[in-house]
Design brief:
Blueprint lengths: L1 E5 L2 E4 H22 L4 H19 L3 H21 L1 H13 L9 H19 L4 E6 L5 H5 L2 E6 L2 H7 L10 E5 L2 E7 L15 H11 L4 E5 L6 E5 L2 E3 L4 H13 L2
Parallel strand pairs: 3-5
Antiparallel strand pairs: 1-2, 3-7, 4-6, 5-6, 7-8, 8-9
């Protein structure tokens, strides 16, 4: 399928996908090196490659000969110079699946908002139930609450769960980057292992995940502890880094 045609050149859908992927890889590489001490060196290398490209384009024989002879040696030198950065990049790839580079920005923004809100609510000992819908629709839970359809943010979550405000009881349901409902009622856990839990929020958090693939972030009003529920299990008293890692691993499988 031809998208564009310039004389004898044909630009197909495959070419477009190819350009997008290569551009994204170059962008991520530049962002990675920008965070290191090597950003100035990257600029110098790009200038050299630009000169080499012009030499080939205008058929400048001497520069072409020089460029072709130093490129192999230059690759070895670069591997030595950028050894720490390359090691860091390979380590990062080892910790993450390749597809995690293409994580949905909506999910990223949502998890950041939830993490920030959970931290601040925990500091103030404000109870909270934040349900992150994934693939299984939470229609009945949404219908039990008040419809919002507002862009998720840490400030809005804090406002909702501030005591004595109209929507602070119950749970918020988050779909993508939208808070679709607040003041929602969640089913209580039917697992005997959690029947003796004192906190209703924790029972409700676990219950919401027993028959769905949702993730529920829970803040205890009594202790200020942050917990989360997933697949019918409760993970109590987790730190922000542990919660962030857990959310990243869960969303990797979406």
């Amino acid at each position: 399928m031809n998208l564009l045609r310039f004389g004898f050149l044909h630009f197909t859908l495959v070419d477009l996908i190819d350009v997008i992927i290569v551009s994204y890889i170059f962008y991520k590489a530049l962002m990675f090196f920008k965070q290191t001490r090597s950003v100035q060196m990257i600029g110098g290398i790009l200038i050299i490659f630009g000169i080499g490209f012009l030499a080939y384009w205008f058929n400048l024989g001497m520069i072409r000969w020089l460029f072709s002879n130093i490129v192999i040696a230059g690759a070895i030198i670069l591997a030595v110079l950028f050894q720490p950065e390359l090691r860091g990049a390979l380590s990062m790839l080892g910790r993450k699946r390749f597809l995690s580079f293409f994580i949905n920005p909506e999910i990223k923004n949502t998890t950041e908002a939830v993490l920030t809100a959970a931290s601040k609510l925990a500091d103030m000992h404000y109870g909270a139930l934040m349900v992150l819908e994934r693939n299984v629709k939470l229609t009945s839970m949404i219908e039990s609450g008040k419809e919002l359809n507002s862009l998720v943010s840490a400030d809005l979550l804090q406002t909702i769960f501030t005591p004595y405000t109209p929507l602070h009881d119950g749970a918020v349901i988050i779909r993508g980057d939208q808070i679709v409902a607040a003041n929602a009622t969640l089913p209580l856990s039917q697992n005997p292992a959690y029947m003796r839990l004192h906190g209703m929020r924790h029972k409700a958090g676990v219950g919401a995940t027993e028959d769905t693939d949702a993730v529920v972030v829970i803040v205890s009003e009594e202790t200020g502890q942050i917990s989360y529920a997933f697949n019918g299990r409760l993970y109590r008293g987790v730190g922000l880094q542990e919660l962030e890692k857990a959310l990243a691993e869960i969303y990797e499988h979406d």
